[in-house]
Structure formats: C-alpha cells, structure tokens
From TrEMBL:
Organism per entry: Spirosoma radiotolerans
Name of the protein in question: Glycoside hydrolase family 1
Region annotated Disordered, chain positions: 413-438
Listed GO biological process terms: carbohydrate metabolic process
Biased composition (Polar residues): 422-438
Domain of life (superkingdom): Bacteria
Keywords: Hydrolase
Alphabetized Pfam families for the sequence: Glyco_hydro_1
GO molecular function: hydrolase activity, hydrolyzing O-glycosyl compounds
Signal peptide limits: none
UniProt keyword Electron transport present: no
Taxonomic lineage: Bacteria, Pseudomonadati, Bacteroidota, Cytophagia, Cytophagales
Length: 438
C-alpha cells in the first residue's frame, strides 16, 4: 500500500449527444484514443504520472439491461494494471447509451448502478472511482441550457435530470462498495461562483450561488438551503425523493473533487443573465467555500488552458493553479491531489461540444500527434520536484491506495475485509438508532 499525493491527468471521454440525439460527440474517437491508446499510456508513464482519470465509453460498453461489451475495457484496463497505473474510473461522462435515451429517463439510476456493479466485479483491482462526472454541469447543459442529450430548457427538466443523475451516482457508489468495500469516490464537480454586477443583481447572484451546491448537497446528504428546497419541490422533486438523499449518505467514502477553469466564474446582471467574468477569486477562494460547506478531503480534479500565441500561457496557468493548491493546503484544507485535464488536446470544446466542427483545442499535456507540449514538460518537472516533498509534510496529504500490482496481496484482501466489516457495523449502528427514535 502506498500513501502519496495524487498527481493525475485524464483521457477525455465525454460522449453527449447533440442534434436531437442524432450525433454523439465521442471525445475518445475525436482525440484518437481508440487507435493510440497504448501510446497514450506510454505518455502517461513518460510524464511520471501514476494516476489517470479514465473510463470505458459507456455508449458502446453498456449495450442493454445487464448486457455489456467489455472488449475494449479488457484491453485498456488490463494494460493499466500491467503498467501499475492507478485509474480513477469515470463511468459516466455527460452521456448515456442510445437505448437509455437521456437523463430524463427515471430508469437511469438503477440501470447505471447495475453497470457500476458489473464493472467493479469485472475489474475488482480498481479502487478509485468517479461514477458520474460533473453532475451539476451534466444536468445544466442537458436540461437547462438545451445543449446536449435531451436538449431541454426548463427548471423542471433540470431538476429531473439532476435528481436522476445524483441518485445514479449514489446507487453506483453503494453498488461498487458491495464489491470493493475499500473503494474511494472522487467527485469531480465544477466549482462555480457568481458575482453580482450591481446592487440589483445581488438577489439573482445569491440564488445562483445557492444553486451551484445542489448536486453535492444531495450527493452528500446535506440539507439544502430553504430557498433551494422550495425550488426543488416546485420543479418536480417529491419529498420521498428528497428523503432518499438524506437517508443514503456515503460521504465517509468520498473525496471532494473540484474542477476549476477561467470560465468557472460569472458576472450576473439584474435580470439574472450571466456572462463570463474570467478569474476573479480563483481556485483558492472558491475551494475554501466548498470545503467549509462539506468538510471533506479535496482534490483539484480538472484544469487547463490553451497554449496561446506566446507558447507559455498554459505553463503559467499550471504554475498559478499549483500555487493555489499549495495556498489551500497551507490554510489547513486536506489537499490530496491535482490534475491537468487532459492528457491530449481535445476537440470542439470551444463550443462546449454543442457543434461538430472538428476544432482542435490545444490544451492537453500533449498534442494529437502525441508530442509533449511545454505544459507537459512543466508538469513532469513539477511532479518530479514535489512528489517526495508533500507526503512527508502532512498525513492529510496521504491517501491509502492499493496499487494494481498489490491487489492480490493478502494484506490487500484483509483491508477489504476490514472495510466491509466497518461498513456493516455502521449500518447496524444506524439501524439501532432508528429503532430507538421510533
């Protein structure tokens, strides 16, 4: 078992549908991963990275209720295990299989939990998961902005998508824990902030700043603010559905992953409309707000910036984000990891995947020719400089990880047995408490 800071990258596996469901934006395909997956794993190793946000394409793997095509996952995850690279498994990244439809489908949570359980049984050596990536953004872009999947633009559609997505995440965590009792879940969620443009904009900004917490409030079983409770009830959530989230709290198995980009902060006008504000507070201030609310260990799970005309823009952003991580850590927040997302350049994120233009976005550690960019070299150096320093300075920075190469060791099995017993003891304690209350 190793205890170390999680320096990570990711291989972009977004796959939402657009054009009324007629076209799927499969980033694994657009970025060439299906053809170059072995080279991509070579690059991960060359950069000195041991942790990789990665997942199988759900739309071609989950082919029907209880039916799975593991052929590509067997190849890629088998190779990750051989190389002793730790995957942080991203099971749902903005899209679902065609046969499920979209996030308005009430059957999605239970179906997805079955998929997560099947994956965990197929790959029992995997310990780290992000079951559903950026739950809030997924619901917002699909059902409030009308960009992806169901392409709806109503509060009712948004609440419907949100409750299904978060329930799917909670049920998936429970299903994975049934197979891998010492699993850890890293919620990759966008960390947002809304700035009032003038005094008349204070109220709409406050509403948006309450709304940004909804996915994590529900996921962690935290009571939402009174105004947000009314919003949820007014837009289709039932009291029974709300109580599900209060009664299925798996927070103790979680690390709060915060994603931060220059686009995460917004300027709000009096009529409630928003525009990008650029970086105002930055990762340090906003992450403190999220940590103060949830009191969980934190990982910086996504950031990037385009390599611009000077060639050093992304390198400077990497330095700035790392300085923010250290600032958060020095303030006493248990920071456990950092991620430049993603390994390679992406395609069509300049339109937030709303359009199929084939535009290459130069924001990866490597370009699509698999050549390392300056930011990749800078990240490699950063990891080399800091990987031995951080764990030695604070136990808060150490996460007990069973490396793939250690998963068959007797002590690793004992660790799972102990975790299973601890979970059962916790469930029994809750049951006794409820009986006493009754």
């Amino acid at each position: 078992m190793v205890t170390q800071f999680l320096f990570a990258t990711g291989i972009e596996n977004s796959n939402p549908t657009i054009q009324a469901g007629k076209y799927r934006q499969d980033e694994l395909e657009k970025c060439g991963h299906y053809q170059h997956w072995q080279t991509d794993f070579d690059l991960v190793e060359e950069l000195g990275i041991r942790f990789l946000r990665y997942g199988p394409p759900i739309h071609t793997t989950f082919i029907g209720p209880g039916k799975y095509d593991w052929s590509f996952a067997d190849l890629t995850f088998g190779e990750l295990r051989k190389r002793d690279i730790v995957p942080i498994v991203d099971l749902c990244h903005f899209g679902v299989p065609d046969w499920i439809g979209n996030f308005q489908n009430p059957d999605f949570p239970a179906l997805f939990a079955g998929y997560a359980h099947a994956f965990a049984k197929r790959f029992p050596w995997v310990q780290l998961y992000t079951p559903v990536n950026e739950m809030y953004i997924c619901a917002e872009f699909s059902a409030l902005y009308g960009w992806w999947n169901e392409q709806l633009r109503t509060d009712t559609a948004f609440v419907t998508a949100l409750k299904h997505i978060v329930k799917a995440n909670v049920l998936a965590m429970s299903a994975i824990l049934d197979v891998r009792p010492d699993a850890l879940f890293i919620q990759s969620e966008s960390s947002e902030y809304f700035h009032a443009q003038n005094p008349a904009a204070i109220k709409p900004a406050e509403i948006r700043n309450a709304k940004r917490f909804l996915s994590l409030d529900l996921n962690y079983g935290r009571r939402v603010d009174s105004e947000m409770y009314e919003y949820l009830m007014d837009n289709g959530m039932t009291r029974e559905e709300y109580h599900f989230f209060q009664g299925n709290n798996l927070k103790q198995y979680c690390i709060m992953g915060n994603d931060y980009y220059q686009t995460n902060e917004h300027r709000v006008a009096a009529d409630g409309t928003t525009q990008a504000s650029g970086e105002v507070f930055g990762y340090h201030v906003i992450t403190r707000q999220y940590h103060d609310r949830y009191r969980l260990p934190v990982m910086h799970t996504e950031t990037n910036l385009w390599q611009g005309p000077n060639g050093d823009e992304a390198v400077n952003w990497l330095w700035k984000e790392w300085a923010n991580v250290l600032r958060v850590r020095n303030d006493g927040v248990p920071m456990v990891g950092f991620t430049w997302y993603s390994l390679t350049d992406q395609v069509d994120w300049d339109s937030a995947l709303r359009e199929n233009n084939g535009n290459v976005n130069p924001l990866g550690l490597c370009d699509l020719n698999r050549q390392i960019r300056p930011v990749g070299q800078a990240y490699k150096q950063l990891i080399s400089d800091w990987k031995q320093v951080l764990p030695a300075q604070s136990v808060c920075l150490e996460v007990p990880i069973v490396m793939p190469s250690e998963s068959n060791q007797s002590w690793a099995y004992q660790k799972q047995t102990d975790a299973k017993q601890a979970r059962q003891n916790g469930a029994n304690a809750v049951s006794k408490t409820n009986q006493t209350v009754d």
